[in-house]
Amino acid sequence: MTFPPETNDLARSLLAYETAAGGTAELVPAPVVRICEKLRGPLSALAGVAGYRSLLARALTLARAEAPTLGALQVADDGGLLGFQEFVSRSDKHHASEAGVLLTTQLVGLFLSLLGAALTLQLVQEVFPNLTVTTESGALTTFSDILKEVGNLNNVSKRLAALADQNPAVEEVLMSVSGNVRNTATTLEVVALIKANSEEPPKKAEKPERERYLN
Q1: Could you tell me if 26 and 38 are in contact, meaning their C-beta atoms sit under 8 angstroms apart?
Q2: CA geometry: angle at 34 spanning 31 and 37, to 5°?
Q3: How far apart are CA 191 and CA 210, in angstroms?
Q4: Across 68-72, 144-148, 197-201, which has the greatest mean pLDDT?
């Protein structure tokens, strides 16, 4: 499965971040394992444990297609990644590192495809607040792109609310998810507008909308 270059940039940045954070202690889990563990909580809260497990299992399947030696890895029922430490101990450093990049890229790519850039980047920023993404292919996203994603998320929230009306048996669950998605959209909009306000010259046409959030 082929992803844009920015996906690989984000994956490598995450791995570099966790490699530096983990130091050289032998008992510290491999960076890719720590990334999966840190993302598992918020993504399980968003998509459910089964949903996160399915995404990680799919990412592992895609990674195995390019690196068959990952065949011994498994995904536990709770979404934990099993077997990577043993894989690292049996592999040379370069091969283990590239396998980690491959698996992380597939996982990040699935998140981007299913959740969109804005929501994925928000989750990553919450879990890795000091992460700096270094790219050779340009920025991962712009504030205008984030605002577009805000519109997409609001549309998803509306569709879920409509589905709730049509499906009384699961109305409570759908309305809860709809509310969570809408709250995420609002948070993203506030962040994007504040960031844009701090980095771009103010425009008269945009000032009232931004002041609505900043005041």
Answers
A1: no
A2: 155
A3: 11
A4: 68-72
Tokens of 36: 């999966």
Rounded to the nearest 10 degrees, the angle between the axes of helix 5-22 and helix 93-115 is 120
**Chain centroid, CA 22 distance in Å:** 20
Residue 118's Cβ-count burial label (10 Å; 0-12, 13-18, 19+) is buried
With contact defined as beta carbons under 8 Å apart, do 14 and 106 qualify?
A: no
Rounded to whole angstroms, the Cα distance separating 163 from 149 reads: 21
User: pTM of the prediction?
Assistant: 0.59
Boundaries of every domain in the chain: 5-127, 143-214
69: DSSP letter: G
Q: What is the three-class DSSP state of 82?
A: strand
